[in-house]
Amino acid sequence: MKNPNSQDNPWLIALYISGAGGLLAVYIVIGFLTGKWLAEWLDGPRYWLAIGTVLGLFIGILNIALLIKRFLGAQSE
């Protein structure tokens, strides 16, 4: 008899995917705000905004990749 696995639920998979998009947006906004704060605090150039935003994007992508790896690892068990 097959044991029901909560990872097989399509709603749970959709929740993971939509959560990943929201998580990426949060990281980008945090990176932008950090870059803005640094530009104001250090009286630096405005490209700190771009650096913070791109850094937030890369950190968000890395976090999503780790989330997917953990999710797919749970699927294979």
From TrEMBL:
Keywords: Membrane, Transmembrane, Transmembrane helix. InterPro entries: ATPase_put. The chain crosses the membrane at residues 12-35, 47-68. Pfam families: ATPase_gene1 (PF09527). It comes from the Bacteria. This is ATPase F0F1. It comes from Paenibacillus ihbetae.
